[in-house]
Amino acid sequence: MDLRQLSYVVAVVDEGGFTAAADRIGITQPSLSQAVRSLESELGVRLFHRTGRSVVLTAAGEALLEPARLTLRDAETARAAVEAVAGLSAGRLDLVCLPTLAVEPVAGLIGRFRQSHPDVAVRLLDPPEARSLPGLVRDGTAEIGVTHLPLAATDLATRPLQQHDYVAVVPPHTEDRFGSARSVSLRVLASYPLITTPEGTATRGVIDDAFASEGLEATVAVETAHRETIGPLVIAGAGVSILPRPVAEDAARRGATIRTIHPKVRRAIGVIHRKGPLSPAAAAFLELTR
Q: Which end of the chain is less enclosed by CB atoms within 10 A, N or C?
């Protein structure tokens, strides 16, 4: 078993098939297939179910995938550490963040990182759901994660970044319903139709926890995974929403009104990473967060 074979297995999984994986790697499909078959022969198991044009991992393949990713990540870290003697002149930084954090603080951090290290490419990933984000760091898919804290997992290192306040986003010209005050209570918000993201998302978790802490339950009227539509939906009068202030301010620029919430709804933001050595790119990115 060698790194090349492991990289081929991971590429087949990530690209969804042998042909696409071979195109990405830059080798012929027969060469890639032969390398995987050699690994299967060495291990004495099949790693993929080959059904026509599609491939599915076997149970053995599933067991190999995470160690393979970690091995490749550690090898990349070792190689990059040697190359770092000459400075960060190449390489890639893999980040994963919650969608609501992509603009603030992640965009600014990536901008500062790229200005300092213009030769390092950055790949920013979006987790399928909030609770899957730590797993993407744990299995080596990404090296750094930006998420809400505290983190239940104790096997990952964390570093606080900032606090995000959540605010109410209401349709324009709503003084007749919300009054002229600049703040609104959770109890009042609970009586209005809410536009929010689906269960399992970070924002929905914050909202549900906030209402539950007051013995309340939100009246969900519109549930959407398309976060960019929440502001326009509020402006169109479909309901109200509760969003992190940086996201809400974009809706305000489009015409919505922002009201602070009492009691405060606040969440800590931080970076997470695997304990142990990091690639020079990841270490440099972490240094920016100090």
A: C
